[in-house]
Design a protein that fits this description.
With 100 residues, this protein is α+β, with helices and mostly antiparallel strands. It contains 1 helix and 5 strands. Strand 4 and strand 5 form a beta hairpin.
Amino acid sequence: MNTSKLAAAFVAFSILAISAGFAQDAMVKGEVKKVDEAARKITLKHGPIKSLGMDDDSMTMVFRVQDPALLKQVKAGDKVQFVAERGSDGIAITKIQKSK
């Protein structure tokens, strides 16, 4: 019985570790160029966004944000990490945080 509990705990831990790794891979480094709270948009200079098949070099793009409160966390010039996801309305930023 103890062996099965240990095996179950190991499987659960492995799944969590793999999920955390995928989430970290989805984070993209960038720099905030402009924040437009009224339009719910942010302009970011960023590297490749592999999760969206954008494997090109650095570029600057305007993104919608899923939650307008995200825009209050950053300002032009901030170095950030973000997650962009493709939805029915196009690509949107779903998570953003200042880089350390």
